[in-house]
UniProtKB/TrEMBL annotation:
Belongs to the GlnD family. This is Bifunctional uridylyltransferase/uridylyl-removing enzyme. Keywords: Hydrolase, Magnesium, Multifunctional enzyme, Nucleotidyltransferase, Repeat, Transferase. PANTHER family: BIFUNCTIONAL URIDYLYLTRANSFERASE/URIDYLYL-REMOVING ENZYME (PTHR47320), BIFUNCTIONAL URIDYLYLTRANSFERASE_URIDYLYL-REMOVING ENZYME (PTHR47320:SF1). Transmembrane segments: none annotated. Pfam families: ACT, ACT_ACR9_3rd, GlnD_UR_UTase, HD. Residues 1-382 are annotated as: Uridylyltransferase. It comes from Oharaeibacter diazotrophicus. Uridylyltransferase (UTase) activity is inhibited by glutamine, while glutamine activates uridylyl-removing (UR) activity.
Length: 933
């Protein structure tokens, strides 16, 4: 919206005009048609220079002042100047007409964002060449000259050449053209012609069509939000098109200008649409978003409005953000961004409420916008007369409701959950304006806390109602610690949403699990939630699990401390409080153990059982972990992660029930052999005995019977074929992985070769289990992430991977060259992420193996480099477990030395750590140079 602003002067118009005049004078001569010679190349050079200088000056002023609106207005004013100069040169020198007819004049108008008097550094320039009558040769020549000059300046120009009649006709039928004309601003040319357009547009298009326009713009906004992602809390937001971005403010501008027929935002205050404070917030949001967008355009040198990770650090520095204990500068910047996006949402609600109050939209249209039907009705609710149902939405009886009883600020959300009603915009506006009533007295009020707990643990609409509480600001004020994580982002590629949005989504997922929805994806959690005894503690723990993010200390430990403080306020007993705090403190434990530990190792299970201690805790932790992972973002939850969690649960359950020590190790091995022998009863006796004698004890204790049978059949076919190399594969749709089994002569580099072949094939290994037979064969099973939804397609892919593995093992394919090509093709993490590689070596996690854990920046070929380094150290890898958290990879290897013993020497540990760090820290160029040397 237009308002007084210091746009500044980026170029000296008089000086540029004088320089061009001098060029024209110096060129001398005339053309055959009698017109002056056009020194076009020289003029273009002048305009390129002043355009570049002006843009650089605007950038420097942006860095100095950090005012985005000023930058956008300065760039728009500079472009006006350039267009005026080019147009005047065209009509006064190149295509001069001494006695112009009524058809030989035109108006140049800016439309779109440029029409608002704002322009991003890399934005398109939208122009309307307005003609009085039909196009003439003179008009065609001028338009062509202006456009080619602008194009040769390197500008992206969208344009239309129309008569006033055409503009009016098209605006009536096309909402996009109508919106563009709504924003039209005269740059230069015939004033009367432009005035005629404005007058006829108002009288013939705008008059009486306000409801139609408002409905179209709000529907257009909703569709844009759907395309961009319905949440305004995506960690790589689109500054222009995303929810809470500039386009949402533009939508308010369009509607206000159309309905209130004003360019002055001050009119909106005078009309009671916004208070002065809210209008100031509007301008502050607009200025901030423009600052981000302008800096983004300058950095990317293109019209890129996606605020990607690779630019967030630099923009945070340009805007002057400083670090804070627990929060980096970029995280503070992005928190501010999301708070601004939230403010934009608040302003949108307030604006829509004002439109309804003034009946800007007829009731039938209003009903369609908000998804309701029927006539306007207003009725009181029996048990809560302070609230009313107006047009099937929850409203307030009068403006003094919350002043009389602040508990109603919680009660209205409780009623919304029970009734399933949407909120009336007037109610939301009053809630937002009553936040000062959420004070210490209300936080300690027993009834208020009871209402909040019932909302949080509701099986109905908990996520929706809590999100409304968060959007209005009530949630962050009532639970002060939650207010600290509102709009907080974590600067990593793993979390797709801000902390508060992630938490609310997790609550929604938990409620869905309790309702039995999506049981096919997490059957165990769906089954267990019906059997738990402490559902309130589970919901509260999930609500609090990330509440201490952004603090210098471990957020799990700090979150448990917050839980111990808050739970008594919710009416929990000491035992309930302690259980909730334990769930918060351990909320990451099950995920970490499941994804990065060998679940076939008895010590892993025994140690985890010692942490959990009871079956009830195990159930609660499993359900909480599922909801937490699923709420991280699209694609984060996989069937394989679900399978790992189920395996950990089922392995731990006997320990907690006391059944884990009923059989000795020898008895379990004997029982496993007998079980397989019975399954192979139809085999020849010699073949059956060979199969039972072929494996060492760990194999019998770690592998399930169906897999043992498949392994036995694969080994027998290999023997009968006289080959010591064989592969098999199975698509496991539910787990979202494909299992590839390889039989090959055992050697230390085998897993490295498998990892390299998978890298070359573009397959992502998520787990590997390695066994050696008594006759010197390796029996390795790797799990790769599934790529295709149909089994037949996935099996064809698995066959290609298996053939590549065989070719690599037989020396028919050279892996280094194939891997190098694949690494170049695959997407790497943005340069914004720099993670130091950490290598941890532990002898206490397993009774048989030394555990090497490597945490580093994920990249193509990482597992291949790691396994090759470990092989170079003459270590045997018994199992590998691969977990990826956005840009961070955590690879865990269970290893022994060549005598199958743990690595006990601290000196050897130092060598292992040093060699792995050296291997991973070398760049591809350094390796190539080393090889060439």
């Amino acid at each position: 919206m237009t308002r007084a602003a210091d746009t500044g002067i980026l170029i000296d118009e008089a000086a540029v005009r004088a320089e061009i005049a001098a060029l024209c004078a110096a060129s001398g001569g005339t053309r055959r048609d009698g017109r002056a010679t056009d020194p076009r190349a020289g003029i273009l050079a002048v305009l390129k220079r002043v355009n570049a200088e002006g843009r650089e000056k605007a950038r420097l002023l942006l860095v100095e002042e950090r005012h985005g609106m000023r930058c956008a207005e300065r760039l728009s004013a500079m472009m006006d100047t350039i267009i005026r100069i080019v147009y005047d040169h065209a009509v006064e020198r190149v295509f001069k007409v001494d006695n112009p007819s009524s058809s030989e004049h035109m108006t140049l108008a800016a439309v779109g964002g440029y029409g608002r008097g704002t322009l991003g550094p890399a934005s398109d320039i939208d122009l309307l060449f307005l003609l009085p009558y039909k196009q003439t040769p003179w008009g065609e020549s001028v338009v062509e000259y202006v456009l080619y000059m602008l194009w040769d300046l390197g500008l992206k120009v969208g344009h239309a050449t129309r008569r006033v009649d055409e503009c009016i006709r098209l605006a009536r039928s096309d909402m996009t053209i109508r919106t563009a004309l709504l924003e039209a601003r005269r740059i230069w040319g015939d004033e009367a012609l432009f005035a005629e357009l404005r007058q006829r547009f108002s009288a013939e298009v705008v008059k009486g069509t306000g409801p139609e326009f408002i409905l179209a713009k709000l529907a257009e906004r909703d569709e844009r939000h759907r395309r961009q992602g319905t949440s305004r809390y995506l960690v790589e937001p689109n500054v222009k098109e995303g929810k809470g971005g500039l386009r949402d403010l533009h939508t308010l501008f369009w509607i206000a200008k159309y309905f209130y027929e004003t360019d002055d935002t001050g009119d909106l205050v005078a009309r009671g649409v916004f208070s002065k404070a809210e209008m100031a917030r509007f301008h502050k949001c607009e200025d901030f978003l423009w600052a981000v967008r302008c800096n983004l355009h300058y950095l990317t040198r293109r019209p890129d409005d996606r605020l990607g990770f690779e630019w967030q650090r630099e923009i945070a520095a340009l805007l002057g953000y400083q670090g804070h204990p627990g929060l980096s500068p970029v995280e503070r910047f992005m928190k501010h961004y999301f708070l601004v996006a939230k403010d934009v949402g608040d302003l949108t609600r307030i604006f829509c409420a004002a439109l309804e109050e003034t009946h800007a939209k007829p009731i039938p249209v209003l009903d369609r916008v908000f998804g309701r039907a029927g006539r306007r009705r207003r009725k009181s609710l029996p048990d809560t007369p302070q609230f009313v149902v107006e047009n099937e939405r929850l409203g307030i009886a009068d403006d003094g409701v919350f002043e009389r009883d602040p508990v109603d600020l919680l009660r209205i959300f409780h009623v919304a959950d029970k009734s399933g009603l949407d909120f009336h915009p007037d109610a939301l506006k009053l809630i937002t304006r009553s936040l000062r009533l959420v004070d210490a007295r209300l936080r300690d009020d027993e009834e208020a806390n009871r209402l909040f707990l019932e909302i949080l643990t509701s099986r109905k609409h908990a996520e929706t109602v809590l999100r409304s509480m968060n959007e209005t600001g009530v949630l962050g004020r009532f639970i002060g610690d939650f207010g600290k994580v509102v709009a907080m982002m974590q600067f990593n590629m793993y979390h797709h949403y801000t902390v508060d949005e992630h938490t609310l989504r997790a609550i929604g997922i938990l409620a869905a699990i309790e309702r039995g929805e999506g049981g096919g994806e997490h059957p165990l959690a769906t089954d267990l939630i019906r059997k738990i005894q402490h559902r309130r503690e589970l919901y509260v723990a999930l609500f609090l699990h990330d509440i201490a993010k952004g603090r210098p200390e471990d957020h799990s430990v700090a979150g448990a401390r917050i839980a111990r403080r808050l739970c008594p306020r919710f009416g929990f007993t000491p035992a309930e409080t302690e259980l909730t705090a334990w769930l918060v403190e351990q909320h990451l434990t099950m995920s970490i153990v499941a994804q990065s530990r060998d679940l076939a190792d008895r010590k892993t299970i025994r140690d985890f059982a010692a942490v959990v201690q009871t079956i009830e805790r195990l159930k609660l932790l499993l359900i909480l972990t599922v909801a937490d992972i699923r709420a991280v973002g699209p694609g984060v939850w996989t069937g394989w992660k679900g399978q790992l969690l189920r395996t950990l649960y089922y392995e731990t359950e006997p320990f907690l029930l006391g059944g884990h020590s009923q059989l000795s190790r020898d008895q379990r091995v004997a029982a496993a052999k007998a079980e397989l022998g019975a399954s192979l009863a139809d085999w020849p006796a010699a073949a059956r005995e060979r199969a039972l004698a072929r494996h060492y004890d760990p194999y019998w204790m770690r592998v399930d019977l169906p897999v043992k049978i498949a392994h036995a059949e694969l080994l027998r076919k290999s023997d009968e074929a006289g080959r010591r190399l064989a592969t098999a594969f199975t698509a496991r749709a539910f787990e979202g992985v494909t299992e590839i089994t390889v039989v090959a002569p055992d050697h230390p580099r085998l897993l490295s070769t498998l990892a390299g072949a998978c890298t070359a094939a573009g397959a992502n290994i998520v787990d590997a289990q390695i066994f050696t037979t008594t006759d010197g064969l390796a029996l390795d099973t790797i799990m790769v992430s599934r790529e295709f939804p149909a089994d037949e397609d996935e099996l064809r892919r698995a066959e290609r991977i298996a053939k590549l593995i065989e070719a690599a093992l037989e020396g028919r394919e050279r892996l280094p060259e194939m891997i190098a090509r694949r690494v170049v093709q695959q997407k790497k993490p943005p340069k914004a992420f720099v993670l130091p590689t950490e290598v941890t070596i532990d002898n206490d996690l397993s009774e048989q193996f030394t555990v090497i854990e490597v945490s580093s920046l994920d990249r193509p070929g990482l597992l291949y480099e790691l396994t090759r380094s470990i092989s170079d150290l003459a270590l045997n890898i018994a199992s590998a477990h691969v977990a990826t958290f956005g840009e961070r990879a955590v690879d865990v290897f269970y290893v022994t030395d060549l005598t199958r013993q743990k690595i006990q020497s601290s000196a050897k540990h130092t060598v292992i750590r040093k060699r792995i760090l050296q291997a991973l820290d070398e760049t591809g160029e350094a390796k190539a140079a080393k090889k060439a040397g």
